[in-house]
Amino acid sequence: MARPQPHPNPVQLCFVEFELDEANACLLRNGEAVALAPTPFTLLCVLARQPGSLVTKDALLDAVWGHRFVSDSVLKTAISDLRKVLGDDPRRPRFIETVSRRGYRFIAAPSPAPSMPPASVTVPAAGTHPSPSFIGRTDEVSKLQRAWERADGGQRAVVWLAGEPGIGKTTLIEYFLASLGGIACARGHCVEHYGAGEPYLPVLEALADLCRSDPTLPALLRAVAPTWLLQLPWLSTTEERDALRRELAGIGPDRMLREMGELLDRYTEQRPLLLVTEDLHWSDRATVQLIDYVARRRGRTRLMWLSSFRLAEVVALDHPLSSLRHELRLQRLCEEVVLDPFSETEVADYVALHSISLARDETFVRALHERTDGVPLFVSSVISEVMGPTDDDATIEARLAGLTVPENLAAIIEHYITKLGQEQRALLSAAAVCGVEFRVETVSLALERDLASVADTCEELVREQVWLTRSRATEVEETVELPYSFRHALFRQVLYDRTPRSLRTHLHRQVGAALERERTAGVPVAASELAMHFDRARQPMIALRYYAEAAEAALLHFSPALCIGLTERALVLLTQAPEGTERDALEITLATLQGVSAFHTFGVGSEARNAFERAYTLLADVPEHPMRGRLLHGFGYLLGLRGDYALALEVAERAETLSSEANDPALMLAACIVQGEVHHLQGRTQTTRCWLERALAIAEPLGIGANEIFAADPQVMLHGMLAIELVRSGLVEQGRAHMQRARTRAQALRQPMTWLVATWQEVLIEVRMGDPVRVAALADDMQTLVDEYSLALGRTACRWWRGWADARNGAPRDGYRRIREAYEEHTRLGMRSGASEVLGYAAEALLLAGDCDAAQVELQEALRVGEELGERVYLPQLLLLEASIARMQGRLDASSTAVRRAVEEARAQEAPWLELLALVELCEHHNAAAEDHQALATLVDQSPETDGTELVKRARLLLQAAKSA
């Protein structure tokens, strides 16, 4: 391998604001070092040595790349890199002029440069220019720069940077960032977790990073991304956060995706943004889902999202990122840059930073490449091992020849571990237990050593440039950043693995205790972090308490999937905890939180039911458990949705008993609501009214809105439920008054779930009043709420009600399709509540389409489901449908029988409105007897609040016709 020889007369000149010193491999701009890789630096020197003269492409290729074969495109890329660093526009060049198809010319007027001190090779701090020690990666840097140019032009760019540990991913990112200058950049790191990772951790870190540099971002978060604002508590007051939680109660995780998409769109209207997330092989699923969402989002966004990961780990561990990267690449929604090990030439470039003569020694370079496989971190480690500051080349070559180079990076790190002093080893072992980043205060407390001495040892390790570096982030007013970090995550990982298990257990206990003390002093420490330490410290009871706290925090931050992961690990750990009341109480907490999370994630299936049932069974031993309200209301509500009405009533009765014993009004309120919901579905109008009126009397003095027990405001819910029962009772004006109170309060509270509940209940009233225009409008309102706030509860209902309205408004086939699809999705989720009514909608749509046979099939299914569930709320309407189908088929006797059964059922339910509906049908389409007309007249007279309705207008016309006859 032949390499270009150093020029006997190295260039030393200044031009405009630059100073160039070839001998010391240094380029300065206004006295400050400029980041420039060796190849573009050599290219600049060759051009500057012949100012004003054309230097042909062949001459440049020979001078810079020696006699190696490289294409013209490599030269073009190097010229482009050089121009970017110099800030030179090829269309209006100040320094380098292109001579078409021939070569390049250095056109800046040079003059002798002042004497400059030798440049030292250092690792750049974040936000500074990287040193000239950056080696190779020309093609990779060019790909990143082209992606940034696309992003700057409004075309979002998602870029994967893949490679093995030590391959130089972070170094490349640092170099690329420095080459862009003062752009808007947000950076976050994934960290290795024990169990479920904190959702969106690297993105939240990046947002926090951006908030520090851009004071306009918090206001934009408040405007378009309130769920993300909640994840950054130092940006708002406790009161603001509580208000936000109430406002956002019940929303789904999908809302966070849409908010982030909107935030990025809005933010990048003013400036392009580079979002960097490193070590994505440790990422949580939520972050991967967010990348997927952003990559597929349409529209102009000046965003480049650059993520690094270890390729082998992503593939071997079947990480969700593995399939995503393939999908996005197939659809051309991302670009992947894979870093390979250094070539021999790049190893020689690296050696040249330390010794020009050794870099020319092909035998030495080849031996070094073979022993390290070209892995940059390995190369760096071996070089530092064999090269002393005063050693000559012969000594270095002999040392390399005699060095037993370990087989892999882990082994060479082990070699470094053996060279540590006792105090350094102890400190680094404790730091490795803390994580890749750590606070010196935490290590000091864990080791019970003087803070100053620990800090001194950390600084000593930083100066050695092997183990530690100062953290990229700095402290800000309301957050505490970790001031030290391991130079490479692999160093921390190997040190942790090599620490004896018994010592690791002890250190986790000590670190956990230290973090508890810091937390008490106001340092923000996540409960999940404390849970992990005490779990690994084999202190299950302490770990379980923190797992419960972390799981509850995950729910508060719209992360039910994380909550499930935390509770699953904790419930396994329960087997190691001693039996007793405290363990039972923790199990109730964990199982309740798991039930709530499973309900949000999977619906009312067995996952949620089993979790709630586990907690419910244990409640007998811990009846005063602080989470009993959430458990009993949540379990009762879930059972009601599943159609398990008998068990739901049992849970409500248990809640009522406990509330009486403890004088707990909130628990009594939960009991009353469940009782009201179940009795309503079973068609007991007066009983339902009694429970709802009792509940309202409890709720109004409490004045509570949505909280951890009630997903929607109880008063809104109760006014709406009572309105439905009043309408069924023929008290239409009173019902509408209660519905208006529900709407007014829902508007004032501005809680999406509460507003959804109010709209849901109003739809039920309008269906019973037979107003398809109003039902269509309300269904569309529900659809908007569901889409905007990801409210899983209303996703199916809004569609079947839209179908009901469509069928009545002249599109029965389309209406039927909507109803049936929504119903099937609803039942797949395990929800059977109200199933007989929805199937009745489907039967009615088919009847309106003139398909009596198909309508009969749907109706029979509706009647069967209603009988199976004990659900009678819609039975009078189903019987009227049966009468209509029989009448259209010419079976008049069967039709008349069905109508009379409907009248009897309405009377049994104490529902005058439904009785009125059935009597109008009887008198309108059948040979009604005089006593039937008399019953209709009496009912109209006894229901003054129904005056003015379309149904009463029909009744009066029938009575008038009967009187005339």
How would you portray this structure in words?
- Helices cover 63% and strands 7% of the residues.
- It is of the alpha/beta class and 965 residues long.
- The longest helix is centred in the middle third of the chain and has 22 residues, at 581-602.
- The relative contact order is 0.05.
- Residues 10-108 bind DNA.
- Residues 10-108 form the OmpR/PhoB-type domain.
- Pfam families: AAA_16, Trans_reg_C.
- Keywords: ATP-binding, DNA-binding, Nucleotide-binding.
Which features characterize this protein?
965 residues, Rossmann fold, single chain, adenylate cyclase activity, five-stranded parallel sheet, elongated, Arc Repressor Mutant, subunit A, five-stranded antiparallel sheet, alpha/beta, ATP binding
